[in-house]
Design a protein that fits this description.
The protein has 289 residues and is α+β, with helices and mostly antiparallel strands. The chain has two domains: 2-165, Jelly Rolls (Sandwich); 168-276, Homeodomain-like (Arc Repressor Mutant, subunit A), CATH 1.10.10.60. The protein has helices at 96-107, 126-137, 143-160, 174-185, 193-200, 204-215, 219-236, 241-247, 253-264, 268-273, 276-282; strands at 2-5, 11-17, 22-30, 34-37, 42-49, 52-56, 59-63, 68-71, 77-81, 87-94, 113-115, 119-120, 161-163. The strands form three sheets. A seven-stranded antiparallel sheet has the order 1-2-3-10-5-8-12. A hairpin with a 5-residue loop joins strand 1 (2-5) and strand 2 (11-17). The protein is globular, with a radius of gyration of 19 Å. The two termini are 25 Å apart.
């Protein structure tokens, strides 16, 4: 578990749970606004203090303590404070592979679930999520924690999610999908609107409009998010921050740190630290998984 104090009494805590294979974050006293971005994982979280304006896939939501937040992988979102109060927030990040396996066992479905709404106002499941989150941060193990996780997930999927087929997951225009694929394949390289326009067969201006309309963010913001996700995967493997910055397309370590903090709320070193215990534990074990 990584804990770090910040300015004005901020505290940011993160832990990876190797049994559930999820990440748990807790932010306390945070004033930071988070720009438009997306994640490769699901986010299940709630606000404990402070009102926030959440912009999710082009729609605005006023969130407050007691509201449950449900974000799907790939969905663009941003938030900023409204009442001048600092943010206290807890969340659990669930990878698509973990979510898909759970959905298969619960619903016999081979497709990934999709949450229908990003905010459930004054949700009674927040208390269950808080208890589970506290167990993860305390490093507890065993059947009680696993029961809480899967029973909560079952309720969330039953009440607020639906299954969609892979062909219906992405309603973006073909040219936008092509640009997304190109950015993913060249995330470590310099790119230009001229190049992206050529990939899509559009002028720079029309490419920018089509991409922003289709994804909710600009091509550069999309590229930044891809680079952050790539950096996270490398940091989990214990690769040095300097090497991660170079391999993920950032100009230098400082550029990576600033972008990581803006999007994730942690520095690369703080994020890497939550996996350090797992690396030590797995040293010397045969790689036969």
């Amino acid at each position: 578990m990584e804990r770090t104090g910040e300015n004005r009494g901020e505290l940011r805590t993160a832990r990876y749970d190797p049994e559930l294979m999820v990440e748990a974050y807790q932010f306390q006293g945070v004033m930071q606004a988070f720009p438009g971005h997306f994640h490769e994982h699901y986010v299940v979280g709630f606000i404990e203090r402070g009102k926030r304006n959440l912009r999710y896939m082009g729609q605005d939501y006023l969130t407050a303590p007691g509201d449950l937040l449900l974000f799907n992988p790939g969905d663009n979102h941003a938030c900023e404070g409204l009442d001048g109060q600092p943010l206290d927030y807890r969340c659990i990040n669930i990878g698509p592979d973990v979510m898909k396996k759970a959905a298969q066992e619960m619903n016999s479905s081979d497709t990934l679930p999709v949450f229908r709404q990003p905010v459930v106002f004054h949700c009674e499941l927040v208390s269950d999520l808080r208890e589970l989150h506290m167990m993860i941060l305390r490093g507890e193990s065993g059947v009680q924690k696993e029961e809480r996780f899967y029973l909560l997930l079952e309720q969330l999927l039953r009440n607020y999610a639906e299954s969609i087929s892979p062909t219906a997951e992405d309603a973006r225009r073909a040219e936008v999908r092509e640009v997304c694929d190109y950015l993913a394949e060249h995330l470590g390289e310099p790119v230009s609107l001229d190049t992206l326009g050529a990939v899509a067969g559009l002028s720079k201006y029309h490419l920018l409009r089509a991409f922003t309309k289709g994804t909710g963010i600009t091509p550069y913001s999309y590229l930044e998010t891809l680079r952050i996700d790539h950096a996270k995967a490398m940091l989990k493997r214990g690769i040095s921050v300097a090497v991660v910055a170079q391999e993920s397309g950032f100009s230098d370590q400082s550029h990576l740190t600033n972008a990581f903090k803006r999007f994730i709320g942690l520095t690369p070193g703080q994020y890497q630290q939550i996996f350090a215990g797992e690396d030590e534990k797995n040293k010397g074990e045969p790689d036969d998984k």
